[in-house]
Amino acid sequence: MTVHHPAREQIELDNVLSALGNPMRLKVVRILAAEGERPCGGMLDGVSKSTLTHHWRVMRESGVIWQRPKGRELLLSLRREDLDARFPGLLDAVIGGAGGPVAAGAA
């Protein structure tokens, strides 16, 4: 499986803000910020696989997350270093404005 990840210098602010503007994707960013790399499956209970696939693609192609294969699953991680280099303080402001990092089971 080949997936597209933009290079650091290709990450655009409007794409990042668009990705972070969705409450479900913002929740994923908060989970990854708090807990680090996580498998794609089971991160958001009750959400269809096709919906999750869409959200992962938007976040990956905007440069918000890394998605890497491990066996039969995909792992997600936050591209904090790249986002902080391109837009210093943005990620912390967005996470802090959303109430700060949360655990996966929290609402």
Description:
A hairpin with a 2-residue loop joins β2 and β3. The chain is of the alpha+beta class and 107 residues long. The N and C termini lie far apart (32 Å). The chain contains 5 helices and 3 strands. The chain has a 3-stranded antiparallel sheet with strand order 1-3-2. It has a single domain, classed as Orthogonal Bundle (Arc Repressor Mutant, subunit A), CATH 1.10.10.10. The relative contact order is 0.23.
Give me some keywords for this one.
globular; 5 helices; alpha+beta; Arc Repressor Mutant, subunit A; 3-stranded antiparallel beta sheet; single chain
* CATH-derived topology: Arc Repressor Mutant, subunit A
Instruction: Tell me the fraction of residues in β-strands, as a range.
Output: 5-15%
Percent of residues in helices comes to: 40-55%
Spatial arrangement of strands, main beta sheet:
1-3-2
Total domain units: 1
User: Which value, in Å, is the CA radius of gyration?
Assistant: 13 Å
State the low-pLDDT regions, or none: 102-107
Can you write the helix and strand succession as a string? Answer: HHEHEEHH
Distance between the termini: 32 Å
Described by strand count, sense and barrel closure, the largest sheet is: 3 strands, antiparallel
Principal-axis shape: globular
Contiguous helical run count:
5
The pLDDT mean sits at 88
What is the CATH H-level superfamily?
Winged helix-like DNA-binding domain superfamily/Winged helix DNA-binding domain
CATH class: Mainly Alpha
